[in-house]
Structure formats: C-alpha cells, structure tokens
Amino acid sequence: MLEVAARKLCGKVCRLTGSRLAARRNFKKAWEQQTMVRKNLLGVFVLVIAGCAAQDSASSVARGRDPQAVLDKSWQWQETITPTEKIVVPNPERYTIHLGSDGKLQARFDCNSGGGSYKISEGKLSFGPLLSTRMACVPDSLDAPYTRDLQRVASFFVQGGDLYLELPADSGTMRFRPAPRR
What we know:
By secondary structure, this protein is α+β, with helices and mostly antiparallel strands. 38% of the residues lie in helices and 30% in strands. It has helices at 2-62, 143-150; strands at 74-81, 86-88, 95-99, 104-109, 112-121, 124-127, 131-132, 155-159, 162-166, 173-178.
C-alpha cells in the first residue's frame, strides 16, 4: 500500500515538475522573442530618427540667404507655386531678372524688357516700382502674373542652385534657375 501511494505521489510530483519545466521553457522562449522584437523596433526607430535628422540638416545647410549668392547673375523664372495654383513657365528664357550689385534690376517680361530698383539684405528682398516697354505679347503670355508677383516679393533663399523668391504671408514662392552664360 505504501508503494502505491509513493508511485501516485511521485507521478503527481513528476507531472508537476514537468509542467513547471515546460512553463519555464515557454516563458523563456516568449521572453527571447519579445526581446528580439524590441531590439528590431529600436533599430527601426533609430534609423527613422537618423534619417529625419540627416534630411533636416541637409535642407538647412543647403538653404542660403546670402545676398552675394544672387547678385550679378541672371535668373530665369521656372514656376510659381501658391496655395491655390501652380504656374509652370513654358519658356523660362522669356522671363528673366538680373540683380546688379548697384541696386538696379534688369528684367525681361516675355516680349517686354524693363527694370527698376531693389533692396536686398540677409534673406530679405523687395523691388521698387517696375518699368517696362508696353509691346503687346501673345495672348497666353505670363507677363502679368510675373510682374505682379515680382512686385510682391518679400524674401529669398538659394537652394540646390535655384533662387526662390517668397511672397508675403506664405502666399507663394517663385522659383528661378540660373540663366546660361552668354
């Protein structure tokens, strides 16, 4: 009788010990899987943060506001982007500006030419009254919005070799490329 009781007791203890071992193994396996997931998520998070930081530093370094970067160069109008429209210029060589170091602007307004004065400082640019010839350009000319927007310019920056003229109160940005040298 004692032998039967010992076997029953041993069987219960062995089963209990076996289930505890299995539970420990399962817990350890689950813990290792969670640790691996945490490490992977941490790695992805670090890569995302590093990518954002690199993008921010690249764009801030490449954005210049030095007046000397734009003076005594000719620029061709590429496009104007506003919150309500995007004007893409089909013939940029017909819409140009040249900012002389003497404070004088020379400009081409499609089939007309003209100029005026301007004031420039670190990141700031404004044009005085613009004068031009009054020839009649083709009906789809962009001379009117080009002239209107030039007179509204409040600031500038250079990025990626292009000149950006910003209109007041985030109302739009004009983009210019360097004109080929003649």
